[in-house]
């Protein structure tokens, strides 16, 4: 038990919180047909993060979050400019912009010397879950010990705060976000501002991406922004159920993927470990395949509807 608390609790909790935070926000992007924008933001925040480190000289959260939000807003405006001037389809404009921002971030890592403080290409892609240990844990009692909890990895605490902030945002603006997603014209006619809500969602996605970057890296951030929402969409058309199912998928993706990465080497007889963030993305892919097969639009759903259709016996001839 002590070994689990010291080595596994913090990374598993951080990964699960990251999947939940990104997965819930992914619903808002999916319902407004902007899922690729989440991919763009997760890449675009990298130069902002590095710039925040370069200016402040520390890995403090405030300057990096500010830099990430500035980069995300800048990328969004640049995408709109490219679409209007070059007359490209949205996907092409996003692809050009976010790949350029990501490449710029990699260059800034080398120029700024950020690779010397664990901000390098491997950290960006895969995160550093394995580094999230809790050596102060001495047993189950440490979960209630303020002194031991003070030593709990800061990444997990930050992700917990971000998740609470997202849940508060959803609870406070539930109806407004729903209206802006499904009928923005009507929302404008009754005094709501869909564009302001979109900007707020953009800011929250940027914050979630920055918080998750250190722990799980960009690969899992992208998967968590898209996969849970897509899985839920294959299973339901109801707005509230969409969020519940995506939360369940994100939970399975985070906790299940972590344990799959821990247990698979033993089962397969490998002499090396598996990357936890990558295994979580694989788990999300398997869940998505299952939702495609078992969902309402899949083979199982179609077969169930055929069975449910009543068949009338032909009327007897008079």
UniProtKB/TrEMBL annotation:
Coiled coil: none annotated. It is found in: Cell membrane. Keywords: Cell membrane, Membrane, Transmembrane, Transmembrane helix, Transport. One of its GO terms (biological process) is response to zinc ion. It comes from the Bacteria. InterPro entries: ABC_BtuC-like, ABC_TroCD. It is a multi-pass membrane protein. SUPFAM superfamilies: ABC transporter involved in vitamin B12 uptake, BtuC (SSF81345). GO terms for cellular component: ATP-binding cassette (ABC) transporter complex. The chain crosses the membrane at residues 12-31, 36-55, 61-82, 91-109, 156-174, 186-205, 211-231, 243-264, 276-295. It holds the Pfam family ABC-3. Belongs to the ABC-3 integral membrane protein family. This is Metal ABC transporter permease. It comes from Siccirubricoccus deserti.
């Amino acid at each position: 038990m002590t070994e689990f608390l010291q080595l596994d609790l913090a990374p598993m909790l951080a990964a699960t919180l990251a999947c939940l935070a990104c997965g819930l926000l992914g619903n808002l992007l999916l319902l407004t047909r902007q899922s690729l924008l989440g991919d763009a933001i997760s890449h675009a925040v990298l130069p902002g993060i590095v710039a925040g480190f370069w200016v402040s000289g520390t890995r403090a959260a405030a300057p990096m979050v500010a830099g990430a939000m500035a980069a995300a807003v800048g990328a969004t405006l640049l995408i709109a400019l490219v679409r209007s001037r070059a007359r490209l389809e949205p996907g092409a404009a996003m692809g050009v912009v976010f790949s350029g921002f990501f490449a710029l971030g990699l260059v800034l890592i080398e120029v700024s010397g950020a690779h010397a403080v664990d901000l390098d290409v491997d950290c960006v892609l895969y995160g550093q879950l394995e580094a999230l240990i809790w050596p102060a844990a001495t047993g189950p009692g440490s979960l209630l010990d303020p002194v031991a909890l003070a030593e709990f990895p800061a990444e997990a605490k930050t992700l917990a705060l971000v998740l609470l902030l997202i849940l508060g945002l959803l609870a406070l603006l539930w109806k407004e976000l729903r209206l802006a997603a499904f009928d923005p014209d009507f929302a404008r006619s009754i005094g709501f501002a869909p564009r302001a809500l979109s900007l707020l969602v953009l800011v929250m996605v940027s914050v979630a991406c920055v918080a998750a970057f250190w722990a799980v890296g960009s690969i899992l951030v992208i998967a968590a922004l898209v996969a849970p929402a897509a899985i839920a969409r294959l299973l339901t058309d109801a707005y509230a159920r969409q969020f519940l199912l995506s939360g369940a998928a994100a939970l399975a993706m985070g906790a299940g993927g972590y344990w799959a990465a821990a247990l698979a080497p033993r089962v397969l007889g490998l002499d090396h470990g598996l990357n936890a963030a990558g295994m979580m993305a694989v788990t999300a892919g398997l869940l998505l395949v299952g939702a495609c097969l078992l969902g309402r639009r899949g083979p199982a759903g179609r077969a169930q509807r055929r069975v449910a259709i009543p068949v009338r016996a032909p009327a007897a001839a008079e």
